Amino acid sequence: MIRFTFIPIFILLTRAFCGSDPQGTQSGPGKVDSAKIITGADQTEKYLPYLKGKKIGMVANQSSIIAGKSSVDSLLSLGVKIVKVFGPEHGFRGNASNGAVVASEVDAKTGIPIISLYGRNEKPSREQLKDIDLMVFDLQDVGCRYYTNINTLQYVMEACAENNKELLILDRPNPNGYVVDGPVMSEEKYKSAIGIHRIPMTHGMTIAEFARYLNGEGYLKKPCRIKIIPVAGYNHDMGYELPVHPSPNLNTQQAVLLFPSLCMFEGTAINEGRGTYLPFTILGAPALKGRYSFSYKPLSIPGMSERPNHRDTVCYGIDLRSYDTSKLRKRREINLSWLIELYRAYPDKAHFFGAERGSTGVSPFDLRIGTDALRKQIIAGLPESEIRKSWEPGLQQFKKIRKKYLLYP
Asked: In the chain, N or C terminus with fewer CB closer than 10 Å?
């Protein structure tokens, strides 16, 4: 494997009413210091000569940028021959709702065929790769097992290995790179579209580091040949302010940093802000009326959440738009207290975690967490300290393995 060095520039796109990230000047672990960071994609001098003269397939979406512009559009303007683009969940231009099946199409701007890797075609086929000399992977990840970009990464690596194609990875910082926390997926039955790896809920690796992990830990039948353009000026303790929303429902820096904690509520009776322009910064449910004063009403929002939990019904709960996320950074952990608090406050505890089991027989909450232990511990009333203690054997083992594949301090 050959490694290069590189970095990006970012502009946070926010809505004025979504709140701000209050820890932007925070010192210590997680300090936001994006000015010193250059993404792999932005270091074109490191890889542009390698692309010239090759037919390129790109795995990209709206988070794939070079100097603030689409990396696909930028590379085309630099004379790179991109013959296909493969889009993950939410599509190439990032305008599909969470979980929506994304159809393949032709990009209106460039005329390039767009192959969807979310829905019926998760893995590139031999036919789709036959006219490609080199695959390029450029997606912004947020460091969670239930954020599906790492699933896409594995499927692309499998396809490249099977079809003798090389994969060039343009690495990007992990905005939650200092957090390795949560239970490790315990059994195969918890594998699903929202998690296929036996890792903690937050893994603390960049996409390139995760690719090394997949190769090294035998996730692929045949290792994938990869080249990496590393991020310049980055380490895992640094905070990273994203220049572009990585997905429609992570539309603020606050949401990105709270996502590891608040996405746990999917599969429960609690709405986590989907159906509003404040996703992953607020929590609530109609049944909490009288217990919390903060309220909001989830609606159907095309391109974000068409069918949010408790649609068209007023929810009551917790407003976290101004929560100081540096607390999570200093402790290097997911916030578990909100889940415990809302379970205890919820009047109908038998339905808090939902009854739906689907075709797998496993609850949506357990699929997201990767085990049924957390649900059982919360129902049993175990204190947070005891729950966290139960995670430690798995976390320590994973951290030891993870260390072998890190590219950054």
From this structure: C
Question: What tens digit of pLDDT does each residue of 41-53 get?
Answer: 999 999 999 999 9
Report the helix count and the strand count for the chain, using DSSP H and E.
11, 13
Of 48-52, 74-78, 179-183, 185-189, least confident by mean pLDDT is 185-189
Q: Looking at residue 196, what is its pLDDT?
A: 96
CA distance 323 to 325: 6
**Between the CA atoms of 201, 202, 205 and 208, what dihedral angle is there, to the nearest 10 degrees?**
50
Report DSSP letters for 247-279, one per residue. BTTB-SHHHHHHHHHHGGGTTSS-B-STTSSST
pTM of structure: 0.89
SS (H, E, C) 186-246: CCHHHCECCECCCCCCECCCCHHHHHHHHHHCCCCCCCCCEEEECEECCCCCCECCCCCCC
CA-to-CA distance for 71 and 79, rounded, in angstroms? 12
Q: Are 175 and 260 in contact (CB under 8 A)?
A: no
Closest to 38 (Cα-Cα) out of 61, 65, 62:
65
In this structure, CATH architecture of domain 253-394 = Alpha-Beta Complex (3.90)
| Residue (of 288, 242, 234, 280) closest to 258 by Cα position | 280
CATH of domain 2-229: 3.40.50.12170
Domain spans in the chain, listed from the N-terminal domain onward: 2-229, 253-394
Res 215 pLDDT > 50? yes
How confident is residue 359, by pLDDT bands cut at 50, 70 and 90? low
Specify whether the CB–CB gap between 73 and 109 falls below 8 A.
yes
Q: Percentage of residues in the chain with pLDDT exceeding 70?
A: 87
Kindly list the distances between the CA atom of residue 103 and the CA atoms of 49, 120, 294, in Å, as whole numbers in the listed order.
Answer: 33, 9, 38
The rounded distance, in Å, linking the Cα atoms of 344 and 335 is 16
